Amino acid sequence: MRESSVHSDQELQRIYAWPQTQCFRLNLLVTPEGIAGQDGTSLSLTSAEDRRLLRTIRAEADVVIVGAESVRAEGWFLPPHGRLIVLSASGKLPWETCPDSSRVFVAPSASAIVHNVTSSETKILCEGGLISAELISERIGFDEVALSTEGLEIPSELDFLHLDGEFTQVSGLVDTSHHMTFRFWRRAVGSRS
Question: What is the pLDDT of residues 122-174, one digit of tens each?
């Protein structure tokens, strides 16, 4: 594995380039503390390099999917272009702080996400926590997985992704100053259920 910091932004864009076909990509940070730090957000768990990778991955997304708990805890982070889908059964969200509600769709289920994504929206990024990730994995399936972890261990909470059998790791980067590992997998073509 190579240090992520030695890669330019352009090199990271090549590593995380989206395919030409529709792609459901998961981007997730998981540490031994979980997906939220003591402040209740992921910010206290991340590093500058992790945030740089997030910006790279998000930059071209047509749709970003998050869970309602993420919005409630961290606020609204609309993608640079495209729209945000919030997975929420209740729809209770802090709308008063939303910078542009016309770019937000609230989906009560993973099935609603499938029905709401248009054929022109091919770059679909899920950032929404473990519960959202598992629901979407079961209902839709991911084509790609970008995973940030503390250290080299892949947490057992991610067993539902079947990373050891259905995916091939295409990149592995590290941020040794923060003991972070950034791995990127692609599913074998045609194997998404």
Answer: 999 999 778 888 989 998 899 999 998 887 677 777 888 888 778 999 999 98
Q: How far apart (Å, rounded) are the C-alpha atoms in residues 17 and 11?
A: 10
Structure tokens, 43: 């910010």
> pLDDT, tens digit, for every residue of 60-69?
999 999 999 8
CA 167 to chain centre: 16
* DSSP characters over 155-171: PGGGGGG-TTTTEEEEE
Q: Provide the CB-side half-sphere exposure for 92 (13 A, CA).
A: 3
CA end-to-end span of the chain: 30
State how far the Cα of 15 lies from the Cα of 7, in Å rounded to an integer.
Answer: 10
Amino acid at 32: P
pTM value > 0.85: yes
